[in-house]
Structures are given as C-alpha cells and as structure tokens.
C-alpha cells in the first residue's frame, strides 16, 4: 500500500481505545474511513476499497515548461551566455571565430562537386562546332575591324595635317629666316635674280605677330608647304618686286596647316602696317582693302592696278592671297596694301617694327 496508516495505542486487535480518542469502528475517525464494514470485534474486515491514487499527491514534481511556437523561439545566438566573462568570450569566439569573422557552420558538410563524365568524341565535335562563329559573325567582325582601322587612320591623318605639318613647317621657316639673316649679316650679296624656292626677304605683319620668309615662286613642296610665303614670279602670274618703281608685289601663303602664315589676315584693318624686309631696305605698306571671297581663277587681283582693290592708277602695291573658307581651297581671299615708306636699313627699323 502507498498510503500511510496511523499507529494504534496497543497491540490488541480489539482494543477499542486509541491515541486519537476514537474507536476504529467509528466511521468518522478518518473522515469516512479507509475501511468499510469493520466489525467491533476486530476479527473480520469487510471488503477493502483502496483509495484512488492521484499522481498529484504522490510526490512533488517540477512543472514542464510551456511549449513554444515557431514565432516565440529565440535563436541561441541572441541569448547571452551564462557564466562569467571567460564563458562569454568563449561563446563569442564560437559564434564569430577567433578574429571576429563569421564562422562557417560546422553541421552542414560542404557539397563536393561531382566529377563530370568525359565527353564522347561526337559530342566534343558538336560542341566545338557550336563554339565556332558563323559566317555572319565573322563578316560583322571584319566590317567592324575595317571601320575601326579607317577611323584610326583618319584620326592620324587629321593629327598630321593640323598639328604635325605646322610643327615641321614652322621649324623649316624659322631655319630659312635664320639662314637669310645670317647671310645678310655676313655681307653675302643677293644676286639680281633668285632660284625657285630661294628666300630673299622677310614679311612682317605686326598686328598678327607674323614674321615669315619670302621665297621665289609658289611651288607647294619647295615653298608653301615649308611654311614660307611665295612670290608670284612665273609665267602669266609674274608680279613686280618691292623695289620696282610701280607694280604689284603678289604673295601667296597657306591659311591652314603647313605653318599657316596667312590664317588671320581677314582680321587686318585699313591702316595696319605690312612690312617687307630685304637685305638693303624696309618697304612699309598700309592695308587698304580686302576681298573676302573670289574665284581661284580670278587672276586680275594680281594686275599692276588690281581690280576691285579701289586703287585708281599705277602705284606700288602689295597683294596677299590665301584660301577660304578655312580648311578648304574652294575660294580665295585677297588683301591689298599700298606702300607708304621705303626705308634704308642704315636708318634703322621703321616705326611699325619698333613700336
């Protein structure tokens, strides 16, 4: 039996007295009794009815914790570790590794890639053909390469025309001017006539900061492309020299590329000085008029008394010719000037070159 029984006062089975002051046969002695039908003589016991065992009354027990739902579950990483400082440090190292980095989960093994089966010869050839570009792809690549090559060549050509020709021509013109001045300083006399391409004078345009040698002829390779200004001195285009008593001293020069000495002559204003320096003299002209556009075949601009210049009779004139618009040679621009002073070198430079 699991229930406890109270002790009797004596060992007699029929003893009706007890330490609790009530006989055993008294049904109220234990509140309804554990025994039903107990006789006074104590010899017989009626049918025994055991009490209902209740687990709650057998022993104390710790109640089970309530079940948590999926939302109420808290990850173990958010729960602060118990124990002292050392335990917390160990827990932090387990979560983040020794150097603070994220620790790889040890529970999930790394998936190893399964080795691929070798391809058959037919499949390998099929994949090789699939990787090979088609005719359309090859054609588009070829056309693209042609366009790229053409663009690069055009860029190089433009760079050559607009930059390198100027660099080279200016260097050649500076050398020619230096050689000419050295000859003058050394007393080397000019012959009466000059060979094509031979320098014989210097042109000064102070307003444009231009100083360029003047050579005989208008040949591109010998004169103009070398950065110099050419004198119209051949055939039907032959013009007078500066020291002539009357006449028109005609000059040609590039407006763009190859030194471009006449690039800004369109900015000259009436009265601006134009000076021709020779071995013996300075010839000073004043800008008189400009013809912005005319045909390349209009050779009348080089006449002794040029048409459309505004001059009325013979005199000592200068004519500057160049291409227009810029970077083209479709038309010509003409600038005229009239001589106002002939000054020997022995008297020094004219005022136009001193101021």
From TrEMBL:
The chain crosses the membrane at residues 135-163. Residues 86-102 have a biased composition (Basic residues). SUPFAM superfamilies: Sortase. It comes from the Bacteria. Keywords: Hydrolase, Membrane, Transmembrane, Transmembrane helix. Residues 1-36, 57-126 are annotated as: Disordered. Pfam families: Sortase (PF04203). This is Class E sortase.
